[in-house]
Amino acid sequence: MKGWALALVVVVAATLAIGVQGLPTHDAPEAPIHDHVGARYVERGVEETGMRNLVGAVLLNYRGFDTMVEVVVIFTALAAVLALPRAGSVADAPEALPVSPVVLFVVRLLAPFIALFAIALLFRGHVSPGGGFQAGALFGALFVALGLVLGRRGAARLVPERARPWLQAAAPLTFAAVAALGWALTGSFLGFPQAPELHAVREAMALALEVAIAVGGGVILGSLFQTMEA
Amino acid sequence: MSDLFDAVMLALLLATALAVARARDLVAAVVLFSMYGLTLCLVWQHRGAPDVAITEAAVGAGVTTVLFLIAVARTRREERR
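ok -> structure tokens follow
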């Protein structure tokens, strides 16, 4: 059995190594990624989508359907974890487990800076690297870090119980709303209006999606942690 | 310099990946996997993808480590032989 596994690994690794030899170098101008849709995104992306960050233009506009289904996948992962039978509820959990003073101090010291960095990534995402997913990942990490030091009940207070299901589903719901609005304005699902007089509407749609991805992603990561820990 | 950095990082990635696969103690495996995520984060940053690096650091090295540790704590620490 072990011999077969080793042989399989060697064969797969050799195949991959041969395949890698055929790849164009990292900076080759004639590489296929540069002369298909990529070239058009770089040349006309800003003009066609009205977004200054090309990554954002691809995520929300050219590949908007991808992103929409991605947030549904993340939400589905949480739904699956929530559906698992639970050991106990938040209410009968101990108030806080003993935490090392070093961890407590470091998390308290860093939490505001992590939050600030996440917000900066979210709202500077249209001009610099960042955006909803990055901010959501940081918010999620912050929730988990705070959950470690606050204990289950303390962490449960971070997000109001009544708002929680709505925040967990924020990204899919906002995508649905923005897609419907785009449909009404342009005639195509998740379409962004191109007319100059609707510039503000287009910006608001993109911002709503980014904020919803960040908030929804962060709350989902935090909820995964809380549900598994409970 | 740049090639040297890439070579060291790739060697480290390979070493940590093999160490994760070989570790019998699952907590050790989780910590090694977190190290793998941090190394990968440096590679992304070096490759000019800071947004991917941020996500890798927060999720790959941070959140998944905690989730794996919880999963280990709720099951068993040693891999079945």
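Chain A has a mean pLDDT of 85.
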